[in-house]
Specification:
Blueprint (H helix, E strand, L loop, with lengths): L46 H10 L8 E6 L7 H13 L4 E7 L25 H11 L3 E7 L2 E3 L11 H4 L8 H7 L7 H13 L7 E2 L5 H17 L4 E5 L12 H11 L5 H11 L5 H5 L1 H26 L4 E7 L2 H7 L4 H6 L5 E6 L4 H15 L6 E5 H18 L4 E5 L1 H5 L10 H10 L3
Parallel strand pairs: 1-2, 1-10, 2-3, 3-6, 6-7, 7-8, 8-9, 9-10
Antiparallel strand pairs: 4-5
Helix pairs in contact: 2-3, 7-11, 14-15, 15-17
């Protein structure tokens, strides 16, 4: 989701402790664990695992997925979680995508990352475990929504020394306009992260916050570990990629990324071409990227796609029945060119089960075109869930988009977001927005 589409709410104080049935044994570690804590399963998954997934299909539990994206602030208290699940059920929704990794932190008992700052005074509370318990009792599916490369946003840096921004500033992505200034700056120096935070604050229309570098091996390993942790320890129905892309073509010009591109492209060049560019690189960090724009774009797409493929195989090796989905830019060409998000290939090659194009527009014709294009790319319409920006459409517009998605044969719809619907979308004294939608389209109570 776009960070500017949501409003950060201060987490309310917990009134009492909550013991959650089904929570993983033990709390988050006091210090970061080593990079590898488990044996790697065989990759790719077995033929049997592929068969199970193919035969079941992405809408196997429901004839139509009726989903809600639930932003992390709703997960800040047990009462908030219970109210959310009850409201979703009353509206006839059957699938919850809950944001458990919002900004490089955790709304669950993570082995790898610090608890979200909104949970700092509730060490025994595991929001994800409570969502699973409450939702499964009602026959609803739960998917863990994981923000991939977006790792921080806000006026100040995260407080926890374990947070990626503080523990591994060398893993952060850099915009081109800062690359020369930061080229010789040690990432451990405070001014490095401060410059990236300030840049994000000054450019909210093009970047949602601080991003990690998709090509960094440490970032790739961390994201993989987060996914496997969730797949192994929680009775989830699925896990959901978000921000699995570059923020824009302006990124990533970090020194590490440029060095990795230089090494990646070398086998493609003649010795003379390599020698000339390498000599220029000593004076100009953009020598390779400016001379080779095609390979530079290919390199960046490959970093994202390779991670998606690896994560998918890792999940299926452990849980063949678990659904892997991704929120993607609805403009497939912009996603490919400017975000390096090649989601058509992910569908073609079976690296995801479902994509959810974020067709956030009040325009019915544009929404229909984007859903139709996604369905054509998917080959199978049940591999598409249409993402609807309820916050832009209001009640009537949201009903229109649900009708269009159904006519286009989408396997379901996902509304962004529960948090808007339960606050701005439901003025005091009115029938709750989700209940109105449910009565009109989902057979809600």
């Amino acid at each position: 989701m776009r960070a500017r589409a949501t409003v950060w709410l201060l987490a309310s104080a917990l009134l009492g402790s909550c013991s959650v049935v089904g929570a993983p044994a033990g709390g988050p570690p006091e210090t970061a664990p080593p990079p590898r804590a488990r044996p790697e399963p065989a990759d790719p998954p077995s033929a049997e695992a592929r068969r199970v997934g193919a035969e079941a299909g992405p809408t196997r539990r429901f004839g139509e997925v009726r989903g809600l994206w639930v932003v992390r602030t709703t997960l800040s208290t047990p009462d908030g979680v219970r109210a959310m699940v009850a409201e979703a059920e009353a509206g006839g929704f059957n699938t919850l995508l809950v944001q458990v990794r919002g900004r490089g932190d955790a709304y669950y008992a993570s082995r790898w990352e610090p608890p979200a700052e909104g949970l700092s005074d509730q060490p025994s509370f595991d929001p994800l475990a409570l969502v699973i318990r409450e939702a499964h009792q009602r026959g609803m599916a739960v998917h863990a929504w994981v923000n991939t490369y977006l790792v921080w946003s806000g006026p100040t840096l995260p407080r926890s020394p374990r947070h990626m921004v503080n523990a591994h500033p060398d893993w952060l992505a850099v915009p081109r306009s800062l690359a020369r200034d930061l080229w010789d700056v040690d990432p451990a120096e405070p001014r490095f992260a401060d410059a990236l935070l300030r840049y994000a604050a000054q450019n909210p229309q093009t970047v949602e916050g601080m991003f990690s570098s998709p090509s960094d091996p440490g970032v790739q390993e961390r994201v993989y570990d987060v996914w496997m942790d969730l797949a192994e320890r929680y009775e989830l129905d699925g896990i959901h990629f978000d921000y699995v892309r570059f923020p824009s073509a302006e990124y990533d010009y970090s020194r590490g990324a440029l060095d990795r591109f230089r090494a990646w492209v070398r086998p493609r060049l003649t010795p003379a071409r390599w020698s000339g560019l390498d000599e220029a690189y000593r004076r100009d960090p953009f020598a390779f990227t400016d001379a080779l724009p095609g390979p530079w774009g290919e390199f960046r797409r490959a970093q994202v796609t390779d991670l998606v493929e690896r994560v998918y195989h890792g999940v299926k090796a452990r849980r063949p029945d678990m659904l892997v989905s991704a929120a993607v830019f609805s403009d497939v060409d912009d996603a490919y060119r400017s975000r390096f998000q090649d989601w058509r290939r992910w569908l073609d090659e079976g690296f995801v089960d479902v994509v959810v194009p974020m067709a956030y527009t009040p325009r019915n014709a544009l929404f229909q075109a984007q859903v139709r294009e996604a369905a054509v790319s998917a080959g199978r319409q049940d591999r598409i869930w249409a993402g609807i920006g309820a916050y832009l459409n209001g009640y009537d517009g949201t009903l229109d988009k649900i009708d269009i998605a159904r006519r286009e044969g989408a396997g379901g719809v996902v509304l962004f977001s529960y948090d808007w619907a339960s606050t701005e979308g439901s003025p005091t004294g009115s029938v709750p927005f989700l209940e109105r939608i449910g009565r009109a389209r989902f057979g809600g109570n």
